Amino acid sequence: MRQYILRRVLFGILTAVLVSLLVFFLMRIAPGDVALMIAIEQSGGEASGITEEQLENIRQSLGLNDPIHMQYLSWMGGVLTGDWGESMFTNRSVYEEFKTKFPVTLELVILSQAVAILLGIPAGILMALKQDTKLDYTIRLVSLAGLSMPSFWSATLLLLGGAYFLNWNPRLGYVGFFDGPWDNLNQFFWPALMLGYISAATKARMMRSTMLEVLRQDYIRTAQAKGLAAFAVTTRHALKNAFIPVVTIIGITTALALGGSVVMERIFTLPGIGNYILNGMLTRDFPVVQSVVLIFAAGVILVNLLVDLSYGWLDPRVRFQ
Amino acid sequence: MASQNQDTGSAAVITVTRSAREWSLWRATTRFVSRKPLGAAGALIIIVMSIMAIAGPWITFYDPIEWNLKDKLMAPGADHWLGTDQMGRDLWTRMMMGARVSLLVGFASVAFGSGLGGVLGVISGWYGGKVDQTVQRLMDALMSVPTLILAMAVMAALGQSLFNIIVAIGIVQIPRANRIVRSQVLAVKESQYVEGARAIGAGDMRIMTQHITPQCVAPWLIISTSALGIAILTEATLSFLGLGVPPPEPSWGGMLSGPARDWFVTAPWMAIWPGLGLSLAVYGFNLFGDALRDVLDPRLRGT
Question: How many CB pairs under 8 A join A and B?
Fold first, then answer.
């Protein structure tokens, strides 16, 4: 068992290092001279009259003249000690910005996953229990439609409908949860619902397929033959086993929900990490992008590691591979 | 048909043979349509969209990019079937051009990404050992970054152009295809006919191409059709966020973003068509993909 844990942790670290290399080089091959862009920014948009000396100073201060492996090592060293670099344009510490913005995204992710679970799991179970009936087909078609709609479209239609018919506009200023819970939840309600609906469709399908697989098993037939009520069969025997793959999916999709949050944060102007990364990419602000992407990849790797380790604990067959 | 051996007086032996019929595309298609009407509907949607996209230049009558402020914000009517946007550009034309972009990016990126992932899966699964470990760590690294973020980062790195979008979305597809194909290869590697092939001295390349790859086609097709839907949505999202097709080139995602948004309340049709097109395309691919999976993978039947 200890060997299994050790191996998985080592692989996790290796993967994280690979991601860091990937992100680092990806940012370095971006077209456009970074020093020039900053110089233009500093002189208020005037491209003429920028001297080579200015550009050199900027390059020096950003450490762009150091050999590439030194840049990489100093960045990685910084990440491990809490110095995640500074934005090239606002000069604010990435770490500080992350601390303020991460809770926003976290709240959005948690709320949308809650919606997804509350909508998706019962729908999936229902579809499995009533397989091939009209209810099954209806839910399937509806959930598939939900999956196919781009989140920015449904959100746009929602805002459009609200403005058109009800003269309603979403509030724009962000309010923290502890400052004003009602306002806060009000603001998160629609984005969480939009994101959650799409995620619910995936969970419903997954739940349906695992449930169907479990229901075919012999022990279910035994339980029914014993004369157990349908409800008891479903909850006590089928559900518990059907849940295992679904729980892992929930864990993994939560970690990957960052992608969906970018769009919602953009549309509903929430000051979260998604918006932050997006701005960083649009302005080619690579200290921001490389540190935040690395942190997120590290988070995903950690979640996967924990899920794998829990498999090793739950299913002894896995340990002895 | 039964062919009887001559009655020789001893026990007559009757051999029954079926007429050998080659697998015919027509019969397979008609069977698919009758057994999986939903999947056939999905396929129909895709075919119609593709035809409209290809026939674009012949069924559109306006320039998709040129400004025409006289005609701005017109509701759908006889002159402009889908109306015009805030620059007076005909929306039917822009939708057709956008369809080209979406479908082109979808097919090309999946061909590239899923294809590469599949090839890597066969190689990595067959050779095993260090090759396998290296490739798998790389795939893990790619998979740790959320899909959209990875595509965004690649676009930010390479710059915005149609080719780069295909590359970016393709890269995102590689790990999924690799995983599916590799697990299939691992399952097939130990089978008897592979052993037999090695015993008679077949080389690695021959075994990989003749024996292993055909077994991987079915799961690869399944994962690739679902990848098509994801690719189209990703391209739309990238264009929406400003990291995709550079404006003023029309793209369904781009038509829902930026300065156009200010005009949605006055001209709601501007918001409806692009999203409808996207949803329909992805829905079609999903329906078809589901039906394909039901047909090709009997273990998953009923899901």
Answer: 151
Tell me how far apart the alpha carbons of residues B90 and B62 are, in angstroms, rounded to a whole number.
Answer: 6
Chain B, window 150-179: residues with a beta carbon less than 8 angstroms from a chain A beta carbon: 152-159
Query: Are residues B72 and B59 in contact, defined by beta-carbon separation less than 8 angstroms?
Result: no
Alpha-carbon distance values, A185 to A211, A265, B259, B288 (Å): 33, 15, 29, 39
**B85 SS3 class:** coil
Which residues in chain A have their CB less than 8 angstroms from residue B229's CB? Answer: 148
Residues of A with Cβ-Cβ distance to B278 under 8 angstroms: 148-150, 153
Closest A-chain CA to B154: A26
pLDDT, residue A321, reads 52
Distance from the B10 Cα atom to the nearest Cα atom in chain A, whole angstroms: 49
A302: which chain B residues are within 8 Å (Cβ-Cβ)? none
Contact A18 B138 (CB under 8 A): yes
Q: Extract the tokens encoding A273.
A: 């990490």
Place of tokens 């939840």: A185
- Maximum distance among all Cα pairs of chain B, rounded to whole angstroms: 97
Whether the predicted interface score ipTM is above 0.90: no
Q: Do B287 and A26 touch (CB under 8 A)?
A: no
**Which tokens is A263 given?**
């769009």
**What's the start-to-end Cα distance of chain A, in Å?**
11
CA distances (Å), origin A121, targets B117, B276, B290: 32, 27, 20
Question: Can you read off the two tokens belonging to residue A308?
Answer: 């794998």
b or e along B129-152 (b: 16 or more beta carbons within 10 Å of the residue's beta carbon)? eeebeebbebbbbbbbbbbbbbbb
Q: Which two tokens stand for residue A156?
A: 């746009």
For B37-300, the fitting CATH number among 3.40.1390.10, 1.10.2020.10, 3.90.1010.10, 1.10.3720.10 is 1.10.3720.10
Are A153 and B154 within 8 A, CB to CB? no
Tell me the mean pLDDT in the region B129-144. Answer: 89
Residue with tokens 């509701």: B75
Residue A255: pLDDT band by 50, 70, 90 thresholds? low
Residues 210-229 of B with CB under 8 A from A: 229
Which residue, among B215, B220, B209, has the nearest Cα to B110 in the 3D structure?
Answer: B220
Where does the pLDDT of residue B236 fall: very low under 50, low under 70, confident under 90, or very high at 90 and above?
Answer: very high
Test A156 with B144 for CB contact under 8 angstroms. no
The pLDDT of residue B235: 93
- Measured between its terminal Cα atoms, the distance across chain B in Å is 38
Predicted TM-score of the model (pTM): 0.83
A266 and B261: CB-CB below 8 Å? Answer: no
**Residues 6 or more apart whose Cβ sits within 8 Å of residue B6:** none
Chain A CB contacts of B261 under 8 Å are 156
Return the bridge partners of B2, or none. B16
Spell out the residues 6+ positions from residue B181 whose beta carbon is closer than 8 angstroms to its own. Answer: B117, B118, B121, B122, B125, B216, B219, B220
pLDDT digits (tens, 9 = 90+) for B21-45: 667 788 878 888 888 788 888 888 9
**B156–A266: do the CB atoms touch at under 8 Å?**
no
Tell me whether residues B271 and A164 touch, CB distance under 8 A: no
Dist. CA B176–CA B142, nearest whole Å: 10
> Distance from B262 to chain A by nearest Cα, in Å?
10
Peptide bond into A31 cis (omega under 30): no
What ranges in B200-245 are assigned the alpha helix state H? Answer: 204-206, 213-241
Residue matched to tokens 């729908």: A123
In the predicted structure, residue B303 carries a pLDDT above the cut 50: no
